[in-house]
Amino acid sequence: MNNFPKKRYRAFTFRFPGRTNVLLTPLQISLPYDPRTDIKSSPPPLIECHSIWDTGATNSVVTKSLAQKIGLIPTGKEKVTNTSSVELRNSYLINIVLPNKVVIPYLKITECENVLGDGKADMLIGMDVIGRGDFAITYENDKTVMSFIMPSIDTIDYVPISNSENRKLETLEKFQVQKQARSLRQPSRKTLKARRKKERQNKKKNRRKY
Asked: Does residue 77 contact residue 91 with C-beta atoms inside 8 Å?
């Protein structure tokens, strides 16, 4: 029986100082191209940019300025709902290359005026990309750690882990309570030894008096 994985996994990890609410990573973007089907065409040039990863966004978006820079041609209009209104915005097909070198061809995106992040990002990665793999955010050693793998490798469920750790903690607390209770009920060997020594010294003193 062959137990080797059927898919090649690709992953990347970024560490940000402190607790951050903006996950900014490098990205490459190009005109749509699929080497499996576009065999008569040469690959378009890749453009370096930065993207913000947002699990609250349903779809990925690109800034209008970057779309014009690449020469993207609108494929239609999409309704985009924001906090105050519903707008019709241009939609495009693009290729993106993730930091783990995974190429997602013919990704449908919409345009926006700006992406949050102090103007450092030209694109926002939404759940249409994040949902293709496993995405995790943790905090350790005063750093926010973001990690992503494609394709999905396993289910991450923190409930069994937390239950197991809580049981260990409860056992330790119970042991400490029992240990403290025993120490209150009876003196330790060291205490008993010190008492006996003091009693012998007192007996010697009393003998000398008489």
From this structure: yes
